[in-house]
Design brief:
The structure is a single chain. By secondary structure, this protein is mainly α. It has 19 helices and no strands. The protein has helices spanning 2-6, 11-35, 38-57, 69-73, 77-104, 113-118, 122-137, 139-152, 156-187, 192-222, 230-238, 256-279, 283-306, 324-331, 333-352, 356-379, 385-399, 406-437, 446-449. The termini are far apart. The active site is at residue 371. Keywords: Acyltransferase, Endoplasmic reticulum, Membrane, Transferase, Transmembrane, Transmembrane helix. Pfam families: MBOAT. GO terms for molecular function: O-acyltransferase activity.
């Protein structure tokens, strides 16, 4: 129709075309209700209603080019001045620590004792990481082999059996990956900080494998679109996201000054983290704030800049949240998106249906399980502090609705933040020092399940940190 009107035709022809179109539309409108039964319209309404409800209930992750919230806020002069204040406090803390140690002990101590003890044996940590990365790369050829071979199976039953065998193999691979890496860091006797870093990478690999498999297996089974290329798979492995897409919004190039600035801030945060723990000064809340800025802002933005990854909304304004549900959604966007997409959303669609509260319980249970894997391997004992807080405190605050003003709700969240993280640091530190300084029977399994700090006060003010894990 547009092509006809753009050509040089005379006015009578144009009027004739318009009249014929109007007559055809009127005929369709008048005759369509008579030709289609009312049951058809009811089915269409129900399908539309169901689709609308499903979309409202299960929100999909949408990627777009955007900066991190702190990056935008630091463009404001007032916020930039507050940032400079923190830099000044950090510099004065380092200076005072150096002067105190020179005057008191006659030694130059830059507050790196915790860092040296926590990240000892870096060559072993690197070897474990390279092994994990190489193993993860092998997932792609195995997936392509399954996708190609299943096409040769003409019989539906054989193809279904082959598919379910592959699904079971993927699940077994993920479980074996978790067990073998966890056992390797324990067998290699990696120190706590190095163990946490390696196991966080282990969880990242497992979640990325699951995201890639779950996003592509339906395309293979339905023969809807082509399988992702190895380039897309490799980019996803290094991109700062856990939700798979064939394509992501990209930036035009790498800004190396931005990369170096984020890496510099990352190193400074690790340094301050070591100094805070060595001085035992407000370690609870300070450690969480340092972890947030160090990992979720500096490191994630540095990786995103190197990978030209456009969507850098790794978190939202969690500090303004006035409900626990808001805080959980805004605190860590990368992990939240994975849990929402591949755990909550899929469990609602496939298992729980309208019982969304069961999906929430499943999300908290999986999150608590992963946290306990890391903490148990790092400290070589089972002390389920975080699991209890997730399963008891977290679910209670999620389901129990207390009506209060936004200001009061935000204040209560900050109080819980301070108390909760303070309890974490206190209990884990007490248990760590008790196991290092108190004699115990390591031949019994109860030694690894029952907290030693309950029966032995092993906290000492000297000799707690060393440069080796022994």
């Amino acid at each position: 129709m547009i092509l006809i009107f753009e050509d040089e035709v005379n006015l009578p022809i144009k009027l004739s075309v318009c009249e014929n179109l109007i007559i055809g539309i009127q005929f369709a409108v008048q005759n369509t209700p008579e030709r289609i039964s009312p049951e058809f319209y009811d089915a269409v309404r129900e399908a539309h209603k169901s689709e609308h409800t499903c979309v409202k209930r299960i929100r999909l992750k949408e990627f777009a080019c955007r900066e991190s919230l702190l990056t935008d806020l630091l463009e404001v002069p007032h916020i930039r001045s507050i940032r400079r204040l923190f830099v000044a406090i950090f510099s004065m803390t380092i200076l005072l620590t150096v002067l105190y140690n020179l005057a008191e002990f006659g030694t130059l101590n830059l507050g790196l004792g915790v860092f040296k003890a926590g990240f000892a044996k870096p060559h072993l940590s690197l070897a474990v990481w390279v092994t994990m990365q190489t193993t993860t790369f092998c997932v792609y050829p195995c997936f392509i082999g399954w996708a190609c071979y299943r096409k040769r199976l003409k019989h539906g039953v054989l193809r279904a059996v082959f598919d379910y065998a592959y699904y079971l193999g993927v699940f077994t691979f993920q479980c074996s990956f978790l067990v073998l890496v966890t056992c390797s860091v324990v067998w290699l006797e990696l120190p706590p900080a190095a163990t946490v870093a390696v196991l966080m990478e282990m969880l990242r690999f497992v979640m990325k494998i699951h995201a890639f498999f779950w996003s592509n297996v339906s395309r293979v089974v339905d023969n809807s679109t082509g399988v992702a290329s190895f380039r897309q798979f490799a980019y996803f492995l290094f991109a700062p996201t856990l939700v798979y897409r064939d394509e992501y919004p990209r930036t035009s190039g790498i800004r190396w000054p931005v990369v170096f600035r984020h890496l510099k801030e990352f190193v400074c945060c690790v340094w301050l983290f070591s100094l805070v723990y060595e001085c035992a000064s407000a370690a609870g809340l300070m450690s969480v704030l340092l972890f947030f800025y160090c990992v979720q802002h500096c490191w994630s933005n540095a990786v995103a800049e190197v990978m030209c990854f456009g969507d850098r909304q790794f978190y939202e304004d969690w500090w303004n949240a006035h409900t626990f549900a808001q805080y959980m959604r805004r605190w860590n966007g990368i992990v939240h998106d994975w849990l929402h997409t591949y755990v909550y959303r899929e469990s609602i669609e496939l298992v729980f249906r309208e019982r969304r509260w069961l999906g929430t319980v499943l999300v908290f249970t999986i999150s608590a399980f992963f946290h306990e894997i890391v903490m148990t391997a790092a400290f070589r004992n089972l002390y389920p502090v975080m699991a209890i807080q997730f399963e008891v405190g977290g679910l209670t605050f999620m389901f129990v609705k207390v009506h209060m003003s936004q200001g009061l709700g935000n204040t209560m969240l900050w109080i819980m933040h301070c108390l909760g993280n303070g309890v974490h640091v206190l209990l884990y530190a007490m248990e760590y020092y008790a196991r290092r300084n108190c004699p115990a029977d390591t031949s019994s399994l109860l030694h690894y399940a029952v907290p030693v700090s309950w029966s032995c006060n092993g906290i000492a003010l000297s000799g707690n940190w060393s440069t080796s894990w022994d």
